[in-house]
Amino acid sequence: xxxxxxxxxxxxxxxxxxxxxxxxxxxxxxxxxxxxxxxxxxxxxxxxxxxxxxxxxxxxxxxxxxxxxxxxxxxxxxxxxxxxxxxxxxxxxxxxxxxxxxxxxxxxxxxxxxxxxxxxxxxxxxxxxxxxxxxxxxxxxxxxxxxxxxxxxxxxxxxxxxxxxxxxxxxxxxxxxxxxxxxxxxxxxxxxxxxxxxxxxxxxxxxxxxxxxxxxxxxxxxxxxxxxxxxxxxxxxxxxxxxxxxxxxxxxxxxxxxxxxxxxxxxxxxxxxxxxxxxxxxxxxxxxxxxxxxxxxxxxxxxxxxxxxxx
Length: 311
Prior knowledge:
Elements: H1 16-20, H2 24-38, H3 42-51, E1 53-56, H4 62-80, E2 97-100, H5 109-114, H6 117-127, E3 132-141, E4 148-151, E5 168-174, E6 185-187, E7 215-216, E8 224-228, E9 233-235, E10 246-252, H7 268-273, H8 278-283, H9 299-302
Helix pairs in contact: 2-6
């Protein structure tokens, strides 16, 4: 039996009338599915639906890894006021985890990574074409400190039970090798279906008594993990020398407040680089209708509000 391609999935189960007169929502779904098919992401879409996350290998080029790592290290050294040896750090200059925020405007390489086609296509499946960039940051982690307990990003201000529809999504790029001893990202497969946060006991990721359902993401630099907002995740505490460096690119649906401020404050040079890229403008909130002052709402922008899961 011939298996239908992902590009045809949006037609399965539709009536003849619906097929002949596709709605605005169906048009958006068809566009999203066509992009996933073009990028050959069918296996990753199935993993995302089944497990709540998927791993994309070699998502970044060697040049992007180098440039992003150098920009992040510069920020960390500026914050610490000292030089940091990312390969051999023992915990003297940098201990445990610190989140380095608002990295997008530190270097153009972060703009490139934001627009990375395959992760963005999977994020669009989760959040729709109107989704916003919420934040770009690094969990810069040295030896020692505590694990980051298991949690779900949908739990940030959303009461349970959560919707099975993803309201936020994360793309986590490894810039250094990930292993459990190096403080790797941890994921709980299938937890996106539970639509609730973990209990205090279920959050544990200490090396002696971790949640038995949590698995360590063994990643090479340049790999990334994309996950649904309901999926439980955290990270182990590093137990070997060196810095574990990532880039976390976080998105949300159009009606949700972003973690970082972008609308109205995007530097002119960034806007100039993307003047012909409508998707980048949407991600940065340039088409977001909310946040008005005495001028009141822009009804032309409000008319663009999403009406379905994919637009």
